[in-house]
């Protein structure tokens, strides 16, 4: 994630900033056309302008009072919602402080997800463009059975529909699930990125000639899914899973392997952009193999090897910082060579998609 600065004071602004401390707490908004955060100037009627860009007028996303969005919408856009919120179908119940708090956390993770989608230039057709498999989100509430038993909502993907359990926005709920599932890592943003991996397998892999290569790396996604999960829960992961997979869940089925690798690729690239924004580099004493200096744009990397070479020492440092604070490792995963090859496939897949979209754009008029 990039680090921004106030247009007036020059002080730092962050992706989710709502005001600029250096400009007397003036409002801040995120412009999706440039993927940049700006201190705003009010022009009346709930509209704003960005310093240095006097032509356009902006307003906040209509969901801002409910999900805390700082994303902007052009004033003349008939759709009152910012890009991430346009994909929502079912949202949390906001009749209570608990519901609003959940929506804030879900919305923040969703906007972070869409930053990367837009940064990569990935196609993201919704249900208006593709009524059968276009992207749509349902944030689902848990239900209570007739006997009073809690029936948790399920986080899943099916034909472009991503359902997320709203209760996992509650730290206590998510942590209890993480422990019961024996997972080293579980976050809302991780859920979003994982489920989007399923979506993009259908969008980018199934529809092009890279499907055969995907099956060589991840396995055949046509393998019986229910039987694979049953076997995983009854017998556990294969004994050598750490030599071939990024997580135990990735080992249960080729589709989950791809989705897990997709999520981790997003984790790595986005964190490395933060590292670059803060000018971080590593040169630990007598450990030259852990030197790390990021001199390229992670969102335009030439290979996964290039990313991993920097990511490994950075992740070791971040884990060490966490341990110094008595916290769990921030990134409790290792990357064997087969996983790096899978990440490289995803890197090439995204690069190909970006290239194809640029080629498909109509030429701009010279007039």
Structure overview:
The structure is a single chain. This protein is an alpha+beta fold and 367 residues long. The chain has 3 domains: 80 residues, no CATH class; 125 residues; 146 residues, no CATH class. It contains 9 helices and 17 strands. It has a 4-stranded antiparallel sheet with strand order 6-7-8-9, with no helix packed on it. The protein has a 4-stranded mixed sheet with strand order 10-11-15-14, with helices on one face. Strand 14 and strand 15 form a beta hairpin. The model has no long low-confidence stretch (mean pLDDT 92).
Strand neighbour order, sheet with most strands: 6-7-8-9
Q: Which residue ranges are poorly predicted, with pLDDT under 50 across at least 5 consecutive positions?
A: none
Largest sheet: 4 strands, antiparallel
Radius of gyration: 22 Å
Share of β-strand residues:
15-25%
Number of helices: 9
Helix content: 25-40%
Alpha-beta content class: alpha+beta
Summarize the structure.
By secondary structure, the chain is an alpha+beta fold. Helix content is 40%, strand content 16%.
Keywords:
17 strands; 4-stranded mixed β-sheet; 4-stranded antiparallel β-sheet; alpha+beta; 367 residues; single chain; 9 helices; 3 domains
């Amino acid at each position: 994630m990039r680090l921004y600065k106030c247009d007036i004071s020059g002080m730092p602004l962050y992706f989710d900033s709502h005001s600029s401390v250096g400009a007397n707490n003036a409002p801040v908004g995120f412009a999706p056309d440039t993927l940049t955060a700006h201190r705003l100037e009010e022009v009346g009627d709930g509209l704003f302008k960005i310093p240095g860009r006097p032509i356009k007028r902006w307003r906040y996303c209509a969901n801002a009072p409910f999900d805390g969005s700082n994303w902007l919408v052009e004033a003349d856009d008939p759709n009152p919602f910012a890009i991430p919120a346009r994909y929502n179908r079912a949202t949390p119940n906001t009749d209570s402080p608990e519901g609003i708090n959940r929506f804030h956390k879900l919305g923040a993770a969703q906007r972070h997800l869409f930053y990367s989608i837009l940064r990569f230039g990935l196609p993201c057709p919704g249900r208006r463009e593709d009524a059968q498999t276009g992207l749509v989100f349902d944030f689902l509430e848990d239900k209570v059975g007739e006997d009073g038993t809690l029936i948790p909502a399920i986080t899943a993907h099916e034909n472009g529909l991503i359902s997320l359990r709203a209760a996992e926005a509650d730290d206590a709920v998510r942590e209890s699930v993480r422990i019961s599932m024996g997972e080293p890592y579980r976050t809302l943003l991780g859920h979003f990125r994982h489920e989007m991996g399923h979506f993009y397998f259908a969008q980018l892999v199934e529809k092009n000639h890279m499907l055969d290569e995907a099956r060589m790396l991840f396995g055949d996604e046509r393998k019986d899914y229910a039987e694979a999960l049953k076997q995983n829960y009854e017998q556990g992961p294969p004994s050598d899973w750490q030599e071939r997979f990024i997580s135990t869940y990735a080992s249960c089925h080729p589709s989950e392997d791809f989705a897990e690798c997709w999520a981790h690729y997003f984790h790595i690239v986005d964190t490395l952009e933060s590292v670059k924004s803060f000018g971080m580099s590593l040169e630990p004493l007598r450990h030259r193999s852990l030197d790390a200096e990021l001199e390229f744009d992670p969102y335009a990397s030439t290979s996964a090897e290039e990313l991993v070479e920097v990511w490994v020492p950075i992740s070791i440092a971040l884990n060490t910082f966490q341990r110094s604070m008595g916290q769990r490792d921030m990134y409790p995963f290792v990357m064997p060579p087969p996983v790096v090859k899978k990440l490289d496939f995803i890197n090439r897949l995204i690069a190909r998609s970006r290239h194809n979209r640029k080629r498909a754009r109509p030429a701009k008029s010279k007039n």
